[in-house]
Amino acid sequence: MTSMRNKLASGWSRAKQVTGEKFGKAEKTEYDETFQELSGHVDVMKSQTEKLMKATNVYLEPNPNRRMEASVYARLKRAPKAHVNELENLGNAFLEMSESYEDEDFGTILSRTGEVEVAIGARFNDLSRGLEHKFIGPLRKFVTADIKHATNEKKALNTTRLDLDVAKAKLKKSTLEQQQANEATLMEKQGVFDQKFESVKQTLERTKQRHMEHSGVVLAMLKAQLDYFQQCSAELEALVSELEDNYHVQEAVSTDVHNAMPLHHEIMNESVAKSFQVRALMNRNAADTSEVTLIADEYVTVYPDDTTVPDGWVMVERDGLKGKVPQECLDMGYH
């Protein structure tokens, strides 16, 4: 019972100290500049690492619904569902089309192309698993273990700092009879704070130095990508040689280059002028079928010349769907 009373009393004193600091009515022990820089650096490492992990996940799985599904399965500690990726889907389309021309060389060409595209898709799945193990996994462990530990230590330090400042305030207000006891309490709290401060500072310094280990993780990612692209390149080169040597296939070229090129550039320039991609600043669900749902940090195509939308709104396209969204939800700073 006494222990419970002491905890409640300490909690109340800390809350009172925090309130006094917010309104400028209580003195606060400030950390030195070096400590503040260390603490801020670790906070930046956390946010940037999480952003890098998110960007990698988007690269490996562009479909936001599948990423959400994978996240749910990860929380449940279950293996995610297997999905056909875009490359495999493309290959299957070639294979399906080849069945309509199975007695012709064209059917064989379609079939071989489909097989290679499916194989490249399977290699991309291998790349995804490799990056999860070699790149995303270590970064996730850094955030959930090292950064979390450093954050918890900073919280514990703040608690000892509050206890120290409460003791300082009590000493200032103490009577002659209370002064000796309050001085002893202050010395005790100061000792605890100093010891915790040095411990947390060392923790932050160790956490900051982890960036050299991350350099190795980045190298592992680059080597995995290099291996993937080299294997894909080898398969595509072999297929191109096969089609050229065995079926005498030649690359299609426009028969009227001089007339076609200006038209091509005209279309491209017109397309660029009428649309561009911007980043969504926040999540926003569509209110009706005339709007489009936004996912923070994903890119959408904007059609700025569309006059069918009201003021303050723009027409965008996301995942093949067009609809209006508030302009304030998009990063339009460069356009």
Measured as a percent range, the helix fraction is 55-70%
Mass-distribution shape: elongated
Q: Low-confidence segments, ≥5 residues, pLDDT <50?
A: 257-273
Let me know the number of strands: 4
Distinct helical segment count: 8
Strand numbers in spatial order across the main sheet: 1-2-3-4
- Series of H and E elements: HHHHHHHHEEEE
Fraction in beta strands: 5-15%
Q: Radius of gyration over alpha carbons?
A: 31 Å
Cα distance spanning the termini: 65 Å
Structural class, judged by helices and strands? alpha+beta
Largest sheet: 4 strands, antiparallel
What is the mean predicted local confidence, pLDDT? 88
In words, what does this structure look like?
With 335 residues, this protein is α+β, with helices and mostly antiparallel strands. Helix content is 69%, strand content 6%. The chain is built from eight helices and four strands. The protein has helices spanning 2-22, 33-60, 64-75, 86-98, 105-173, 176-208, 211-246, 257-274, and strands spanning 276-279, 299-303, 313-318, 321-326. It has a four-stranded antiparallel beta sheet with strand order 1-2-3-4. A hairpin with a 2-residue loop joins strand 3 and strand 4 (321-326). Helix 2 runs antiparallel to helix 5, helix 2 (33-60) packs across helix 6 (176-208) and helix 5 (105-173) runs antiparallel to helix 6 (176-208). The chain is elongated, with a radius of gyration of 31 Å. The protein starts with a helix and ends in a 9-residue tail after the last strand. Mean pLDDT is 88; it is low at 257-273.
